[in-house]
Predict the structure.
Amino acid sequence: MSNQKLLVEDWMTSPVQVVQMSTPVLEAYNMMMERCVRRLPVVDGGQVVGIVTLGDLREARPSPATSLSIYELNYLLSKLTVGEVMTHTPYTVTLDTPIQVAARIMLDRKVGGLPVVDAQWRPLGIITESDVFRMLTEKWDYFTGPHTERTPVGAGRNGGVKSAAY
């Protein structure tokens, strides 16, 4: 196997779209929908102070069982900010973090992405589970070699088709 290091810098998404703590929840939600992203680093004074996910924004929406009118709901949602629903002090990585370390943090901490920051906590990018999967598919030969036994997709260890149930 090659001694080449696989670093976050080479696989992260950059530049990264960020939001301010004061950004209204609806504006952040629309931004995510327009850009097809599921998480945004939150900045204050140019430094990463949090991360907000699509799930955070969905949870901030009121229950359909509410007795508030649509006008009252829209008013309340217009006042709710990202700073009120974000995860504070998110796990982060730097440009020179090995991709394996970033993937391990995401797996162990059950998060789908990590802001990439410099020494002053300024956002440089974001590394997500999708970036790790892209790296895995593009660098497959880095992890495998001609000596590695390959199992056909859909086949189990004994050559049988894998069950759809898990």
User: Anything to note?
Assistant: The radius of gyration is 20 Å. Residues 50 and 90 are 5 Å apart (CA to CA). Strands lie at 19-20, 39-44, 47-53, 87-88, 113-117, 123-128.
